[in-house]
Specification:
This protein is of the alpha/beta class. Helices cover 39% and strands 17% of the residues. A 7-stranded parallel beta sheet has the order 3-2-1-4-5-6-7. It is globular and about 65 Å long.
Length: 357
């Protein structure tokens, strides 16, 4: 087994060449990083000739052409009940259905809990090859408070240790950082398969005038862009504080935050904190996102933890420079960048200032 593969297709071709039917199990809702990884793997494997089925507890994204979808959460639209269902899934009747369906595939790629447990059980009662795909590169509870912190710590425990992971047939990680972090909990060989973007999402680029009218972006302003879900982990309150200090020294600059609010209370809090030159777009379409990357002077993130971070890879695709913490896995691969020490916010502001001035 190699230490690193360029793609999921190369990994499957090299390690399990007799495989034909693959189940990819994970998040397929909200268009976040995990869901985009599942989507891209499904596209790549289907185009390579594999029969692919996505198993998801929650799903609201368009299924790629030629890919099947099996949703195994009857309470998706009831937020609190859905969280309980998610946590208890391995002991609920629906898990039997999932295991029976996974047995129809030669390989099950599991992203995060609870499918790492489902994939493990399926591999033990049949010949299904279980591949656990690791995302965390740090404690995923970092930055969360209250019930969100409790929830994150429980899930983090299930995703970094235990028999379901230790006894997986293969373990893949989205970055070297994620690999090293997981190896601090388990003694297993882990291979790295970096995430990639779906370039076909960006074949259309929305016009600047339309973006300006819809979101109130001033065309003469310099643009700092953040893309991602609005959660405490993304540390957006710190980014807004940095921006407010920066805007005292640079006039005509805007911070655009593109992404839906996964934590409504936190989103409301930072919107009250933000000044008039901070623009919240909410969810944007792919052409709009491509347009935002195109018009932005710099992409930035103060995220406290990322397994990879697809928006940085997307920013690089559009030749948009990046400012991020040096601990950010994807940022290390970008050529045009300024990386600063973790939580060194004065240095972060200086790095942004150097790009914009």
């Amino acid at each position: 087994m190699a230490d690193e593969y360029e793609s999921v297709v190369e990994f499957v071709d090299s390690e399990e060449p007799s495989t034909q039917r693959i189940a990819i199990c994970g998040q397929f809702r909200g268009r976040g990083g995990d869901a985009r990884v599942v989507e891209q793997q499904a596209i790549d494997l289907t185009e390579a000739g594999y029969e692919v089925t996505i198993f998801a507890l929650e799903a609201d994204m368009d299924v790629p052409e030629g890919v099947k979808l099996k949703q195994v959460n009857p309470v998706q639209d009831r937020v609190l009940l859905s969280k309980v269902y998610w946590l208890l899934f391995p002991i609920l009747p629906w898990v039997v259905y999932s295991i029976l369906r996974l047995r129809e595939h030669e390989m099950a790629i599991s992203h995060r809990y609870p499918f790492n447990i489902v994939g493990y059980v399926s591999s033990k009662i049949d010949d299904t090859t279980h591949v656990y795909w690791s995302h965390p590169s740090a404690d995923t509870a970092e930055g969360f408070t209250g019930l969100a912190g409790v929830w994150s710590r429980i899930i983090h425990r299930f995703e970094t240790r235990g028999r379901a992971i230790e006894r997986a047939d293969y373990i893949c990680a989205v970055s070297t950082d994620s690999k090293q972090y997981l190896q601090s909990f388990i003694d297993r060989k882990i291979v790295v398969v970096p995430n990639k973007i779906n370039e076909r999402r960006f074949t259309e680029i929305e016009d600047l005038d339309i973006l300006s009218d819809k979101y109130g972006i001033k065309q003469d302003n310099q643009i700092i862009l953040f893309v991602g879900r609005i959660t405490e982990r993304k540390n957006l309150h710190s980014l807004i504080e940095i921006f407010e200090c920066l805007s005292q020294n640079i006039s005509d600059v805007s911070l655009v935050i593109a992404g839906s609010a996964s934590q409504k209370e936190y989103a409301d809090k930072i919107k009250q904190q933000a000044g008039s030159n901070v623009i919240f777009t909410g969810y944007v379409t792919d052409p709009e996102l491509a347009g935002l990357y195109t018009i932005s002077d710099v992409f930035t993130t103060c995220s406290l933890e990322e397994g990879w971070g697809l928006p940085i890879t997307e920013a690089q695709y559009f030749d948009t420079p990046v400012v991020a913490f040096e601990s950010h896995p994807a940022a290390k691969e970008v050529t045009d960048k300024k990386l600063v020490e973790f939580k060194d916010y004065p240095a972060f502001e200086r790095a942004l200032f150097e790009y914009l001035s």
